[in-house]
Structure formats: structure tokens, C-alpha cells
């Protein structure tokens, strides 16, 4: 197949490809360093990558891809049990890591290969095929041990090229982000995306609003983040006119990995004149939909299907919704070249994930507008609440709660109720812990904005909501979820 990174051999070699703090690599530097990694791992089978937020991680992954070897990104914050499971399941022959990185005992049995960003090598001839595995990325494992999603080279190329179409993404763009590099968002979109376009990426190492402002003022054109990051930006904007001005310079602000509350959308737009666009994807599907750069940015939606992606909504009995009205909730199913190949060593789970005609069951619930825009209302397992004969998505209630001035953070779950089937439970982090809003106040607030049957029946107060590395609320860690 054609190269995933044509700029490594046919592009401007002196253009900066990667920058992490004070450390940067041009395309010529990256080609030499990744070429050296490729020569080292060519016959290695699968390789693990200790995915710290450093240039060595990018060099390691690109080197493995140049060699046609599947890379298994490892989260440096994984617990011993999870890490042991991933290593046993994926059986890598070695681990690529930055020379100074401390590795846990679980990796002691693997040969360690230090990644040299000053390495000297050549880009090998591409002898791969589209269906060859590029990455094995492990899911979060909320219902059991993490599963390894095998992501093909075709899927990586298809998703990045579809996003280039939707976002008008070119080699002139400079992306800034502070996302972790063991996940699809930070690694595939945030590192491989700019490299496939022949553009540049500046990684913050650790996200902070000052770093975002600095890079946007210094020529960065795109920002990727998760809702937690945009929430921090929204909170900082009233006291930081410089940040507002910097964000106003960006060509594109993109949020993903979870829904960005409408309240934060509105605060950022009011302060900067910019609209944050959202996209929707999963480990198993890479990217499915996005608000287009040349389309209408509607807060609370994830846009329309990307080029090449088919999307449908399906009712519980398997009936495909024939028409979309913006109200009827169904499970999202997708089909296209962006899909993963299989769950490694799990033919049972792979078979269960697909319909007989090849549609992937995402487990995400959504409504779709007549013009194709998709609005996600939550996960089927944790966010679809069946109360009083209604199917209710937790996401829209959370957005309504966040509009209340006394609510800092909010999560909504369902719990068994003898009368209603399930009752709506609001988990609230109040702005003022000494004077939190009452149940009656919040219930009335939601009923006025949405509908009476969507009001919470129970309110539980927390100091903080449990979140994972990507900022997603871990609802299974909330009692009653």
C-alpha cells in the first residue's frame, strides 16, 4: 500500500514535524530516527511502546509502522494487574521506551530497546498491505479485562483522510495538544494525523491554559482537547483576556473523547468568538462523525458521518429507524473502512460486536436530526435510563444541570424504582459545598428546560466526580450506576 507518512520521504525535510517542549524533530530527523527503529524491530513481531508524553513515543510508533510491525501502546499509569493482562494477551517480543523512562516490574521479562531520537537510519521500502495490523489498542475494560482492538493500516489512513476532508486539514496546519499518547485521540489523531498531512504537532507534555495560549500565539492553528481541558479553559477565560485572544486566532478547536457540556461551548464562544467542534469515535471505530469546518457548528452535536462511514440508529428490537426526527433514541451502528479488524484472541467478543451484515454495535445511544446531525445521549449500559415508560438519555440532563449556577460538575445515572422502573439520580459537585442547591430546586430547573419526566428524583453530593485519564466520568464507580 502507499505509505502512511509520505512526508517522511517526499516532503520538506527541514520542516519541524514534532515538538515536545524544547525538544523538536524535523521530518529529516524523524525519518532517520524512526528508520533506525524500523531496522531494529523489522522481524520482532508485535512490539510494546511505553507511551510517555515524549518524542521517543512518537518515534517508536512511527518506526514500528515503517517496519510493518504492530505497536501496542502501554499506558504508563496502568496498574500491575491490567498491565500484566495486556502483556500476556498481546505477547510483544520487546518494549520500546525512552532511555530514561523507569519501567515497572511487569515489563522485566521483556527485552528493552531504548529509542534514540538522534538515530540514523533510512525509511525502508513499504511492503505492507492495507489489512496489516498497525496498532493494538486496549479498551478501558469497564465490563471485564481490557480487550485489544486490532486496528489496521487501512483504518488509520481512512480515518485521518476523512478528518482531513471534514476539517480542511493540510500540511500548513500546526496542531497543539496535551493528550496522552496511549490512546486513539492523542496518538492516532494527535500525532499520526499531523505526520500524515506533512504538518507539525506541538505537544504540551502536560496540559495547561498558559501553554495553549503560548502555542496559539506562536503560530499553532488547531487545538485538540477533552472536555475537562475545555472546561478549564472556560473557567480561566473571564480573568485571562490573553487566553481569549489566543483562542480567537485558532483555525479549529476540536473536542472529543466525551461530550462537551453546552454551557462550556457557550462560555468559550462568548469570550473568543470561536466555536468548539465535536467529533465522535471509539477505539474500535476510530472516527465516525464530526462537525465539519465548513458546516454549522451546533453545540451538543457530533456533526455528520465522515466520508466513507455509514451510520444508522437501531431500536432495542433490532428495527432500523427509517426516518430521523431529532427525538427518537436508538443505538448507533456503523460500517466502513475505519473499523477495527477484531478483538485480539477474542473471536467470541468480535462476533458479538458485529451484526450479521457487518455493522458494528457501538453501545452508544443517540438521536439524529432530519439533516443528518447526530446528538449522542449516552452509553446504552450506563446512560440510557428507562423511567415511567420513557427512554431518557443522561447526557441532556447533565447539560441542563450544568446550566444551574450552583452546579460545578454533574453526572446522571439511573437506579431501580418500584414505581417508575428506574429513577433519575443526579450526582452533583456544588459550587459552594456549604450551600448546595436542593433536590427541589434542581428538579424544577431540569423540568423547565427539558420535560417533567426528565427531572432528577434523587440528588447526591460529591467533592469530585471520578474520571479516567481521558476525562470521562466513570459512572460505574458511582453507587447505583
Automatic annotation (TrEMBL):
Gene3D superfamilies, alphabetized: 3.30.300.30, N-terminal domain of ligase-like (3.40.50.12780)
Domain AMP-dependent synthetase/ligase: 13-344
SUPFAM superfamilies the record matches: Acetyl-CoA synthetase-like (SSF56801)
InterPro entries membership: AMP-bd_C (IPR025110), AMP-bd_C_sf (IPR045851), AMP-binding_CS (IPR020845), AMP-dep_synth/lig_dom (IPR000873), ANL_N_sf (IPR042099)
One GO term of the biological process aspect: fatty acid metabolic process
Molecular function as annotated in GO: medium-chain fatty acid-CoA ligase activity
One Pfam entry name: AMP-binding_C
Coiled coil segments of this chain: none
CDD domains attached to this UniProt entry: MCS
Family stated for the protein in its record: Belongs to the ATP-dependent AMP-binding enzyme family.
Protein name as annotated: Acyl-CoA synthetase
Amino acid at each position: 500500500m502507499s505509505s502512511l507518512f509520505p512526508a517522511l520521504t517526499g516532503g520538506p525535510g527541514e520542516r519541524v514535524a514534532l515538538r515536545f517542549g524544547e525538544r523538536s524533530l524535523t521530518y529529516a530527523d524523524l525519518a532517520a530516527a524512526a528508520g533506525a527503529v524500523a531496522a531494529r524491530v523489522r522481524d520482532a513481531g508485535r512490539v510494546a511502546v511505553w507511551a510517555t508524553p515524549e518524542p521517543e513515543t512518537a518515534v517508536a510508533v512511527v518506526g514500528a509502522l515503517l517496519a510493518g510491525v504492530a505497536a501496542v501502546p502501554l499506558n504508563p499509569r496502568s496498574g500491575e494487574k491490567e498491565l500484566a493482562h495486556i502483556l500476556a494477551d498481546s505477547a510483544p517480543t520487546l518494549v520500546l521506551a525512552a532511555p530514561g523512562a523507569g519501567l515497572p516490574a511487569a515489563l522485566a521479562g521483556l527485552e528493552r530497546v531504548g529509542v534514540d531520537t538522534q538515530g540514523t537510519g533510512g525509511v525502508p521500502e513499504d511492503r505492507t498491505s492495507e489489512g496489516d495490523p498497525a496498532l493494538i489498542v486496549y479498551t478501558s475494560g469497564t465490563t471485564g479485562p481490557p480487550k485489544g482492538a486490532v486496528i489496521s493500516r487501512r483504518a488509520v489512513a481512512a480515518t485521518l483522510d476523512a478528518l482531513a476532508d471534514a476539517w480542511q486539514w493540510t500540511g500548513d496546519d500546526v496542531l497543539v495538544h496535551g493528550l496522552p499518547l496511549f490512546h486513539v485521540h492523542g496518538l492516532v489523531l494527535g500525532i499520526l494525523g499531523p505526520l500524515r498531512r506533512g504538518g507539525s504537532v506541538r505537544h504540551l507534555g502536560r496540559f495547561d491554559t498558559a501553554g495553549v495560549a503560548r502555542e496559539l500565539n506562536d503560530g499553532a492553528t488547531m487545538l485538540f482537547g477533552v472536555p475537562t481541558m475545555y472546561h478549564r479553559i472556560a473557567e480561566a477565560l473571564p480573568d485571562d483576556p490573553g487566553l481569549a485572544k489566543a483562542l480567537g486566532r485558532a483555525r479549529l478547536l476540536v473536542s472529543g473523547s466525551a461530550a462537551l457540556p453546552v454551557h462550556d461551548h457557550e462560555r468559550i464562544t462568548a469570550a473568543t468568538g470561536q466555536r468548539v467542534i465535536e467529533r465522535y469515535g471509539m477505539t474500535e471505530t476510530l472516527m465516525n462523525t464530526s462537525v465539519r469546518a465548513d458546516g454549522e457548528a451546533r453545540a451538543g452535536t457530533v456533526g455528520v458521518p465522515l466520508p466513507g462511514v455509514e451510520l444508522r440508529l437501531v431500536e432495542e428490537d433490532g428495527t432500523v429507524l427509517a426516518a430521523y426526527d431529532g427525538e427518537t433514541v436508538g443505538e448507533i451502528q456503523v460500517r466502513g473502512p475505519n473499523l477495527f479488524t477484531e478483538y485480539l484472541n477474542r473471536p467470541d467478543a468480535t462476533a458479538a460486536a458485529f451484526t450479521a451484515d457487518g455493522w458494528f454495535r457501538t453501545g452508544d445511544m443517540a438521536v439524529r436530526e432530519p439533516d443528518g446531525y447526530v446528538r449522542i445521549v449516552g452509553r446504552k449500559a450506563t446512560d440510557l435510563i428507562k423511567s415511567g415508560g420513557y427512554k431518557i438519555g443522561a447526557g441532556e440532563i447533565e447539560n441542563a444541570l450544568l446550566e444551574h449556577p450552583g452546579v460545578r460538575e454533574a453526572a446522571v445515572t439511573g437506579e431501580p424504582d418500584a414505581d417508575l422502573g428506574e429513577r433519575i439520580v443526579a450526582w452533583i459537585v456544588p459550587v459552594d459545598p456549604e450551600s448546595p442547591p436542593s433536590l427541589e430546586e434542581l428538579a424544577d430547573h431540569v423540568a423547565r428546560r427539558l420535560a417533567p419526566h426528565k427531572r432528577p428524583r434523587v440528588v447526591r453530593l460529591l467533592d469530585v466526580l471520578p474520571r479516567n485519564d481521558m476525562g470521562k466520568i466513570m459512572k460505574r464507580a458511582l453507587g447505583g450506576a
